[in-house]
Design goal:
By secondary structure, the chain is mostly helical. It has 9 helices and 2 strands. The protein has helices at 8-14, 18-39, 43-66, 72-97, 103-126, 141-157, 169-183, 204-219, 221-250; strands at residues 135-137, 189-191. A two-stranded antiparallel sheet has the order 1-2. The relative contact order is 0.10. The chain crosses the membrane at residues 16-36, 105-123, 135-156, 168-190, 202-219, 225-242.
Amino acid sequence: MTPNTKSPMNLRRQSIYLLPNLFTLGALFAGFYAIVQAMNNRFEHAAVAIFVAMILDGLDGRVARLTHTQSEFGAQLDSLSDMVSFGVAPALVAYEWMLKDYGKTGWIIAFVYCACAALRLARFNVNIGVVDKRWFQGLASPAAAGIVAGLVWNVHEFSEEIEPLTHLLPFVAMAFTLLAGLSMVVNVRFWSFKEFNVRKTVPFYAMLIMVLVLIVLAAKPALALFLFFVGYGVSGYLYWLWQLLRRNKLHPPQ
């Protein structure tokens, strides 16, 4: 029996909706803009553009769910946009910023990051209906991009303060780019924030914490965002280590 291609489900999967895809295209534009700015040696603008892409990428899915305009086209476009904004763009920004002066080693590290982002997105797409939605398998590509872009942004933001350590920057850039890339393909679990419910009541002190967060973010946005993504990247490994110690405590080796 031939399937009905005119069914509502098939029509929804094949439809193209304007509003959520505008956010996705905006994220794609920000990622492309970051690459262009890096080629023009405007690295601070490039780093900020990656964070703008991150915001727009976070909005497109939520807008699609709120307006009931999810589609297979939108999902595929979002994945391609993520590859440009959080895979290619951070790798090229890091390469143009610091890694290209180190020849083969520099571009290999940049490519490792880019390849890991592609592998991470491909694994996410094929496992989307299988894995526990509360957790990401490997560091999410926007978070990895936040680590790399945050490093670039902070180095330019605090260039005078870190001037005595300038000779160490190439090694720091290599280490952060490589570790952020490899973290995307490890089997370590990272909290996905998908259980976070904004409609749920919270105690009063939670609002005070949010006020402090907003103050820090307004005062030092580059540092606050960088520390958040670095902390998030470390949290997955700390959780993995805690699970390992707990397992060994419950089931000690004979």
